[in-house]
Each structure stands twice: as structure tokens, then as C-alpha cells.
Design brief:
- The chain is of the alpha/beta class.
- It folds into 2 domains: about 5-190, Rossmann fold; about 190-330, Glucose Oxidase, domain 1 (3-Layer(bba) Sandwich).
- The chain contains 10 helices and 14 strands.
- The chain has helices at about 5-15, 50-65, 90-100, 115-120, 125-130, 145-155, 175-185, 215-220, 245-255, 280-290; strands spanning about 40-45, 70, 105-110, 135-140, 160, 190-195, 200, 205-215, 235-240, 265-270, 295-300, 310-315, 315-320, 325-330.
- Strand 10 (about 265-270), helix 10 and strand 11 form a beta-alpha-beta unit.
- Helix 9 (about 245-255) packs parallel to helix 10.
- It is globular and about 45 Å long.
- The two termini are about 30 Å apart.
């Protein structure tokens, strides 16, 4: 990374986290415009390969929303030697950058998570991407690496929501409805809660939403984007296929590095296939996160689950464990 880009990362980080001279606290990022019928959107595959039938189904659904849907040139690619990647790093990065920089594209939908987002971050020309108008970037899981980088490098909010070429979107009408409402009429999605949400550590806090997948956040430590908005932010966490001991190690690592210093609250999503049981993960979260002395809310249904909540990242919100909800200060999109 060149010195000019490194300086810009530091400046954006200071503006976002409230660590710059004379700053009074965390600032929200620029919000992209909401979607409207007739808008052109593009599907990209920055991580793992996308099954063709699910990609085709996603196009049909999004077209049914009144959107003009385009596929990135390499969205159906498979890496010839590394089967967990959707094509070469350079091609996946080019597809993402071209979609972001195209002035006619109003949103970028990630077709799948999986693996590979971290591999291609250094191939993106963030100088060029900063000159483009902000637009919604949608995805979760491995897309957490992109959420971090876009906040720091581009100063924009992003959307933690379903990857559209997966079963977390295709065939899940509730997840589709949740995402569509957030993208088209975001003022109707100001209060985020789930029936089973409850306090692990009671309290109320305000801060900028950030975070996503625990494994990705842990794997990104000591990279240019890893500080993001921990100082004064509300961290959202979820994961899949990690046992309690592994979750413990990752949380302890984040604590010991100081990455969680300054966090104002934690909202915890789903832990699908994380043995031995969800309650064991809840006990672990209470044990590890009580150390922070901030409110912790368990049981919001975002992440690897059916009917997942869509969360706008980078906007100010209030975490209230007594009422078991997150309340946005502004709609996720303009």
C-alpha cells in the first residue's frame, strides 16, 4: 500500500472512530441512496463459487422487484486450482471495482460469502473507488472483510444482509422481504429485534454499528482496516461452524489485542452449527464480554439463519437490552 493511500486510511479511520484532533465522538458514514424500481444493479462473486441455479433464481427475484439486473463478467467463474474461490483474485477484484465505479449501477449485491474476500482487498484501487458515488453494498459472512474496508477506505455505510446466490436468500421469502424493505423503504426498518432477544449484560448504549462475522474480524487483525470503529461503536457478531472453544479463542484474541477497547455495546446474532449448543455459546459470550463493562444483547436473528435481519452498518444506533432491540438514529439508506 502506498503512503498516500495509507494516509487516507488513517484520516478516514480518525473521522469515523472519533479519534482525530478535536473530534467529539464517532461519526456516521455517508449513506448511499435507496433503491427505486428501474434502478440498475449488479451481482458480483468476490468470494466462493455460486451455484448457477441459485444465481439464476436470485436474478429472477431481483428482477421481480423492478430492478434491472446485471451479472458481473466473472460471476460464474471457478478457480482452476482452488475450488473454494470464484475465479482468480484479480478477476473478482475487477468485477467488484467495476461495479462500484460504474455510475449507472445503483447497488452491488454479493452473490455468496464463503472464502476469498481478504485475498483480493489489496487489488482494489480505492483511489478510483473513492471518486465514485456511494451505492449499497449488500452481503454478509466473508463479506465482513468488505464491510470493514469500505467503511475505512470509502467512508460509506454498507448493508449486512443476505448473499443473494444462496439459500439465505433464494427460497427464503422473509429474508427477501426484510432486505427489500431495507433497500427500498428503509424508514420502515428503524427498530431491529427478534422474539428471543434478551440481555446477557444489561444496559443501554449509543454508537455506530460495525462488525459482522467473528472469524473474519479475527482474521483481519493487524491489517489496514482492522481498527474500523471499535472506539465508540456497537459491535455486531455472528458466526457458523465454530465450536465453543474456537469462539473462546477468537474472542480472547480480540480482547488481548485491545481491538475491543472503547466498544460501547455488543449485539449478538446467530451461531449456527456452533457446538455444543446455543446456550453454551451464550454463556461463553457472557463470560468473555462482561469484562468490557458494556451492554450485551443476545439473540438477534442476523447471520447464518433463516429469515435473517438486515443490518445497515456505519449508522448510529441505540442498543437497549431492556427492550431487547437496536434502534437506528437514521434510515440505513438515504
Amino acid at each position: 500500500m502506498g503512503s498516500d493511500v495509507g494516509e487516507s486510511v488513517a484520516e478516514v479511520r480518525e473521522e469515523f472512530t472519533g479519534t482525530g484532533a478535536g473530534s467529539a465522538g464517532p461519526a456516521t458514514l455517508r449513506r448511499p441512496p435507496r433503491l427505486r424500481p428501474g434502478d440498475r444493479v449488479r451481482l458480483v462473486a468476490p468470494c466462493s463459487p455460486v451455484p448457477d441455479e441459485r444465481l439464476d433464481a436470485a436474478v429472477e427475484i431481483l428482477t421481480g422487484w423492478g430492478l434491472e439486473v446485471e451479472l458481473a463478467p466473472h460471476v460464474r467463474d471457478r478457480h482452476p486450482r482452488l475450488p473454494y474461490l470464484a475465479g482468480h483474485d484479480e478477476d473478482r477484484a475487477a468485477d467488484l471495482q467495476d461495479a462500484w465505479c460504474d455510475p449507472d449501477v445503483r447497488a452491488v449485491f454479493c452473490a455468496r460469502g464463503g472464502d476469498g474476500a481478504h485475498r483480493m482487498l489489496d487489488l482494489l484501487d480505492f483511489d478510483a473507488m473513492r471518486r465514485a458515488q456511494p451505492k449499497a453494498l449488500i452481503g454478509f459472512s466473508d463479506i465482513t472483510a468488505l464491510h470493514e474496508a469500505f467503511a475505512v477506505e470509502l467512508g460509506v455505510t454498507t448493508v449486512h444482509g443476505p448473499v443473494v446466490g444462496s439459500l439465505y436468500f433464494v427460497g427464503d421469502e422473509l429474508a427477501q422481504r426484510e432486505l427489500r424493505t431495507t433497500l427500498f423503504t428503509p424508514e420502515r426498518r428503524m427498530l431491529l429485534t427478534s422474539p428471543g432477544a434478551r440481555a446477557l449484560v444489561p444496559g443501554r448504549a449509543e454508537g455506530v454499528l460495525f462488525g459482522g462475522n467473528l472469524s473474519l474480524l479475527n482474521d483481519g487483525l493487524a491489517t489496514p482496516h482492522s481498527r474500523l470503529s471499535t472506539n465508540g461503536g456497537i459491535l455486531v457478531l455472528e458466526d457458523i461452524n465454530e465450536d465453543a472453544a474456537r469462539v473462546d479463542r477468537m474472542l480472547t484474541h480480540l480482547l488481548r489485542t485491545g481491538w475491543l477497547d472503547g466498544v460501547r455495546g455488543v449485539a449478538i446474532g446467530t451461531w449456527t452449527d456452533c457446538p455444543p449448543a446455543p446456550e453454551a455459546i451464550a454463556d461463553l459470550m457472557r463470560d468473555r464480554l462482561s469484562y468490557l463493562g458494556v451492554p450485551v444483547l443476545w439473540g438477534l436473528e442476523f447471520g447464518h439463519c433463516a429469515a435473517q435481519l438486515t443490518l445497515p452498518l456505519g449508522v448510529m444506533a441505540t442498543l437497549d437490552t431492556e427492550r431487547a432491540h437496536l434502534e437506528l438514529a437514521v434510515p440505513g439508506l438515504e
